[in-house]
Specification:
Helices cover 33% and strands 30% of the residues. The protein is built from 10 helices and 13 strands.
Protein backbone atom coordinates (compact mmCIF):
# COMPACT_ATOMS: atom_id res chain seq x y z
CA UNK A 1 0.00 0.00 0.00
CA UNK A 2 1.30 3.44 -0.91
CA UNK A 3 1.54 5.70 2.15
CA UNK A 4 2.83 8.68 0.16
CA UNK A 5 1.77 9.43 -3.42
CA UNK A 6 3.25 12.39 -5.26
CA UNK A 7 2.18 13.06 -8.84
CA UNK A 8 3.55 15.87 -11.04
CA UNK A 9 4.16 18.05 -7.97
CA UNK A 10 5.02 21.67 -8.73
CA UNK A 11 6.11 24.49 -6.45
CA UNK A 12 7.10 27.99 -7.49
CA UNK A 13 8.24 30.99 -5.47
CA UNK A 14 7.52 33.92 -7.74
CA UNK A 15 9.30 33.20 -11.00
CA UNK A 16 11.53 30.52 -9.45
CA UNK A 17 10.39 26.92 -10.00
CA UNK A 18 11.58 24.93 -6.98
CA UNK A 19 9.81 21.70 -8.01
CA UNK A 20 9.20 20.87 -11.65
CA UNK A 21 6.62 18.08 -11.76
CA UNK A 22 8.13 15.42 -9.52
CA UNK A 23 6.46 12.02 -9.14
CA UNK A 24 7.19 9.24 -6.64
CA UNK A 25 5.48 6.79 -4.29
CA UNK A 26 6.51 5.54 -0.86
CA UNK A 27 5.11 2.23 0.34
CA UNK A 28 3.93 1.72 3.92
CA UNK A 29 6.82 0.71 6.19
CA UNK A 30 9.54 1.90 3.80
CA UNK A 31 12.42 4.28 4.40
CA UNK A 32 12.58 6.57 1.37
CA UNK A 33 15.49 8.93 0.79
CA UNK A 34 15.33 12.20 -1.13
CA UNK A 35 18.91 12.87 -2.16
CA UNK A 36 20.19 16.07 -3.65
CA UNK A 37 22.44 19.08 -3.06
CA UNK A 38 21.26 22.20 -1.24
CA UNK A 39 18.61 24.04 -3.24
CA UNK A 40 17.42 20.98 -5.14
CA UNK A 41 13.91 21.01 -3.62
CA UNK A 42 14.19 18.38 -0.86
CA UNK A 43 13.10 20.59 2.04
CA UNK A 44 10.37 22.19 -0.08
CA UNK A 45 8.94 18.74 -0.75
CA UNK A 46 8.81 17.91 2.95
CA UNK A 47 7.27 21.29 3.80
CA UNK A 48 4.46 20.65 1.32
CA UNK A 49 3.74 17.27 2.93
CA UNK A 50 3.71 18.75 6.42
CA UNK A 51 1.32 21.52 5.39
CA UNK A 52 3.78 24.40 5.69
CA UNK A 53 3.73 25.11 1.93
CA UNK A 54 0.91 24.66 -0.55
CA UNK A 55 1.78 23.15 -3.93
CA UNK A 56 1.55 25.23 -7.09
CA UNK A 57 0.38 22.23 -9.08
CA UNK A 58 0.09 18.45 -9.08
CA UNK A 59 -1.20 16.10 -6.40
CA UNK A 60 0.07 14.97 -3.00
CA UNK A 61 -1.58 12.30 -0.87
CA UNK A 62 -0.16 11.18 2.47
CA UNK A 63 -1.81 8.48 4.57
CA UNK A 64 -5.02 8.90 2.50
CA UNK A 65 -5.12 12.68 3.10
CA UNK A 66 -4.70 15.08 0.19
CA UNK A 67 -2.84 18.35 0.61
CA UNK A 68 -6.05 20.30 1.22
CA UNK A 69 -6.58 18.21 4.39
CA UNK A 70 -3.07 18.55 5.84
CA UNK A 71 -4.24 20.97 8.54
CA UNK A 72 -6.60 18.41 10.09
CA UNK A 73 -5.71 17.32 13.63
CA UNK A 74 -5.91 13.63 12.77
CA UNK A 75 -3.36 14.09 10.00
CA UNK A 76 -1.01 16.26 12.07
CA UNK A 77 -1.06 13.82 14.99
CA UNK A 78 -0.06 10.95 12.68
CA UNK A 79 3.21 12.71 11.76
CA UNK A 80 6.62 13.02 13.31
CA UNK A 81 8.70 15.90 11.96
CA UNK A 82 12.34 16.93 12.27
CA UNK A 83 13.00 20.06 10.22
CA UNK A 84 14.81 23.38 10.33
CA UNK A 85 11.76 24.78 12.14
CA UNK A 86 11.81 22.21 14.96
CA UNK A 87 12.50 23.73 18.37
CA UNK A 88 12.62 23.06 22.11
CA UNK A 89 11.84 25.06 25.24
CA UNK A 90 15.33 26.18 26.24
CA UNK A 91 14.50 26.94 29.90
CA UNK A 92 12.90 23.57 30.58
CA UNK A 93 14.67 20.30 31.26
CA UNK A 94 14.95 17.55 28.69
CA UNK A 95 12.38 15.53 30.62
CA UNK A 96 9.90 18.41 30.86
CA UNK A 97 10.19 19.11 27.12
CA UNK A 98 9.54 15.53 26.14
CA UNK A 99 6.80 15.02 28.73
CA UNK A 100 4.90 17.91 27.16
CA UNK A 101 4.91 16.19 23.80
CA UNK A 102 4.28 12.75 25.29
CA UNK A 103 1.09 14.05 26.90
CA UNK A 104 0.11 16.03 23.81
CA UNK A 105 0.21 12.88 21.70
CA UNK A 106 -1.07 10.61 24.49
CA UNK A 107 2.02 8.41 24.25
CA UNK A 108 2.50 5.75 26.96
CA UNK A 109 4.33 6.49 30.20
CA UNK A 110 7.96 5.48 29.88
CA UNK A 111 8.17 6.79 26.31
CA UNK A 112 10.52 9.61 27.38
CA UNK A 113 13.03 7.24 28.93
CA UNK A 114 12.87 4.89 25.93
CA UNK A 115 13.58 7.49 23.26
CA UNK A 116 16.37 9.04 25.32
CA UNK A 117 18.00 5.62 25.68
CA UNK A 118 17.65 5.06 21.95
CA UNK A 119 19.72 8.18 21.21
CA UNK A 120 22.18 7.71 24.08
CA UNK A 121 21.02 10.65 26.21
CA UNK A 122 19.31 8.95 29.16
CA UNK A 123 21.86 10.51 31.54
CA UNK A 124 20.85 14.03 30.41
CA UNK A 125 17.17 13.70 31.30
CA UNK A 126 17.25 16.31 34.09
CA UNK A 127 19.54 18.78 32.32
CA UNK A 128 18.22 22.15 31.15
CA UNK A 129 18.03 22.24 27.35
CA UNK A 130 19.96 25.54 27.15
CA UNK A 131 23.00 23.74 28.58
CA UNK A 132 23.09 21.08 25.90
CA UNK A 133 25.42 21.04 22.91
CA UNK A 134 24.05 21.53 19.38
CA UNK A 135 24.39 17.82 18.66
CA UNK A 136 22.54 16.88 21.85
CA UNK A 137 19.70 19.27 21.01
CA UNK A 138 19.40 17.67 17.59
CA UNK A 139 19.00 14.27 19.25
CA UNK A 140 16.34 15.64 21.62
CA UNK A 141 14.46 17.08 18.63
CA UNK A 142 14.52 13.63 17.07
CA UNK A 143 13.17 12.18 20.32
CA UNK A 144 10.35 14.74 20.17
CA UNK A 145 9.53 13.64 16.61
CA UNK A 146 9.30 9.92 17.40
CA UNK A 147 7.99 9.84 20.99
CA UNK A 148 4.47 8.90 19.84
CA UNK A 149 5.70 6.27 17.32
CA UNK A 150 4.12 8.15 14.38
CA UNK A 151 2.64 6.51 11.31
CA UNK A 152 4.81 8.74 9.11
CA UNK A 153 8.13 10.36 9.95
CA UNK A 154 9.64 13.26 7.98
CA UNK A 155 13.33 13.84 8.69
CA UNK A 156 15.38 16.64 7.15
CA UNK A 157 19.09 15.74 7.55
CA UNK A 158 18.56 13.76 10.80
CA UNK A 159 22.22 12.95 11.49
CA UNK A 160 24.02 16.03 10.19
CA UNK A 161 26.88 17.05 12.52
CA UNK A 162 26.53 13.92 14.67
CA UNK A 163 29.52 11.70 15.43
CA UNK A 164 29.67 8.16 13.96
CA UNK A 165 28.78 6.38 17.22
CA UNK A 166 25.70 8.54 17.75
CA UNK A 167 24.73 8.21 14.09
CA UNK A 168 24.80 4.44 14.49
CA UNK A 169 22.36 4.70 17.40
CA UNK A 170 20.02 6.87 15.32
CA UNK A 171 20.15 4.39 12.45
CA UNK A 172 19.27 1.53 14.80
CA UNK A 173 16.29 3.51 16.12
CA UNK A 174 15.02 4.36 12.62
CA UNK A 175 15.29 0.73 11.55
CA UNK A 176 13.32 -0.29 14.66
CA UNK A 177 10.60 2.23 13.78
CA UNK A 178 10.45 0.93 10.21
CA UNK A 179 10.14 -2.63 11.50
CA UNK A 180 7.22 -1.47 13.65
CA UNK A 181 5.50 -0.10 10.53
CA UNK A 182 6.45 3.59 10.49
CA UNK A 183 6.94 5.04 7.01
CA UNK A 184 9.98 7.32 6.90
CA UNK A 185 10.89 9.98 4.35
CA UNK A 186 14.30 11.52 4.94
CA UNK A 187 16.73 13.83 3.23
CA UNK A 188 20.45 13.31 3.63
CA UNK A 189 23.83 14.19 2.14
CA UNK A 190 25.32 11.05 3.71
CA UNK A 191 25.46 8.39 1.01
CA UNK A 192 26.56 5.67 3.44
CA UNK A 193 23.46 6.50 5.48
CA UNK A 194 21.21 6.32 2.42
CA UNK A 195 22.75 3.03 1.30
CA UNK A 196 22.28 1.45 4.72
CA UNK A 197 18.84 2.78 5.63
CA UNK A 198 16.83 3.45 2.52
CA UNK A 199 14.66 0.87 0.78
CA UNK A 200 14.38 3.33 -2.10
CA UNK A 201 15.92 6.68 -3.01
CA UNK A 202 15.22 9.44 -5.52
CA UNK A 203 17.88 11.74 -6.96
CA UNK A 204 16.42 15.26 -6.85
CA UNK A 205 18.35 17.91 -8.75
CA UNK A 206 17.17 21.34 -9.95
CA UNK A 207 13.62 20.45 -8.93
CA UNK A 208 13.50 17.30 -11.08
CA UNK A 209 13.79 13.64 -10.06
CA UNK A 210 16.62 12.42 -12.26
CA UNK A 211 16.33 8.74 -11.29
CA UNK A 212 15.02 6.56 -8.47
CA UNK A 213 15.15 3.02 -7.18
CA UNK A 214 16.65 0.79 -4.53
CA UNK A 215 20.26 1.82 -3.76
CA UNK A 216 21.62 -1.58 -4.84
CA UNK A 217 19.65 -1.47 -8.10
CA UNK A 218 20.93 2.00 -8.94
CA UNK A 219 24.52 0.96 -8.24
CA UNK A 220 24.13 -2.04 -10.54
CA UNK A 221 22.42 0.04 -13.21
CA UNK A 222 25.32 2.49 -13.50
CA UNK A 223 28.26 0.17 -12.96
CA UNK A 224 30.93 -0.02 -15.62
CA UNK A 225 31.78 -3.41 -17.07
CA UNK A 226 35.43 -3.29 -15.99
CA UNK A 227 37.74 -5.28 -13.75
CA UNK A 228 40.57 -3.52 -11.91
CA UNK A 229 43.68 -5.65 -11.30
CA UNK A 230 46.46 -4.76 -8.87
CA UNK A 231 49.70 -6.77 -9.13
CA UNK A 232 52.15 -7.55 -6.34
CA UNK A 233 54.63 -4.97 -7.63
CA UNK A 234 51.98 -2.21 -7.31
CA UNK A 235 51.15 -1.86 -10.97
CA UNK A 236 47.48 -1.66 -11.91
CA UNK A 237 45.54 -2.69 -14.99
CA UNK A 238 41.92 -2.22 -16.07
CA UNK A 239 40.31 -4.83 -18.30
CA UNK A 240 36.87 -4.60 -19.89
CA UNK A 241 34.54 -7.52 -19.26
CA UNK A 242 34.29 -8.71 -22.85
CA UNK A 243 34.24 -12.18 -24.33
CA UNK A 244 37.67 -11.61 -25.88
CA UNK A 245 39.11 -10.98 -22.39
CA UNK A 246 37.50 -14.04 -20.72
CA UNK A 247 40.68 -16.17 -20.70
CA UNK A 248 42.82 -13.30 -19.39
CA UNK A 249 40.42 -12.70 -16.53
CA UNK A 250 40.26 -16.41 -15.70
CA UNK A 251 44.06 -16.52 -15.53
CA UNK A 252 44.14 -13.48 -13.27
CA UNK A 253 41.94 -15.18 -10.67
CA UNK A 254 44.53 -17.94 -10.16
CA UNK A 255 47.70 -15.92 -10.66
CA UNK A 256 50.13 -15.66 -7.71
CA UNK A 257 51.36 -12.36 -9.16
CA UNK A 258 48.01 -10.64 -8.52
CA UNK A 259 47.40 -8.86 -5.19
CA UNK A 260 43.83 -7.68 -5.72
CA UNK A 261 40.96 -7.92 -8.19
CA UNK A 262 37.80 -5.81 -7.99
CA UNK A 263 34.91 -4.86 -10.21
CA UNK A 264 33.81 -1.28 -10.81
CA UNK A 265 30.82 -1.13 -8.44
CA UNK A 266 30.10 2.56 -7.82
CA UNK A 267 29.01 4.11 -4.54
CA UNK A 268 25.65 5.84 -4.39
CA UNK A 269 27.47 9.18 -4.38
CA UNK A 270 29.30 8.23 -7.57
CA UNK A 271 26.02 7.20 -9.16
CA UNK A 272 24.48 10.56 -8.22
CA UNK A 273 27.38 12.38 -9.86
CA UNK A 274 27.10 10.24 -12.98
CA UNK A 275 23.35 10.92 -13.26
CA UNK A 276 23.42 14.65 -12.49
CA UNK A 277 27.00 15.73 -13.17
CA UNK A 278 26.98 17.25 -9.68
CA UNK A 279 28.75 16.26 -6.46
CA UNK A 280 26.32 15.60 -3.62
CA UNK A 281 27.59 18.20 -1.11
Amino acid sequence: MSMIQVNELEKSFGSERALRGITFNVEAGQIFGLLGPSGSGKTTTIKIMTGEFKPSGGEVNVNSYNYKQFAKNDYVSSLGILSDKSSLYERLTVKDNLELFRKLYNAPKGSVEKVLKDVGLESEIDKTVSKLSKGMKQRILLCKAVIHRPAILFLDEPTSALDPTTTEKIHDMLEELRDEGTTILLTTHNMDEATRLCDKVAFLYQGIIQDSGAPSDLRHKYKREEVHITYNDGTMKTVEKKEENRQLLNNVLFSEEVADVRTDFPTLGEVFKKVTGKELV
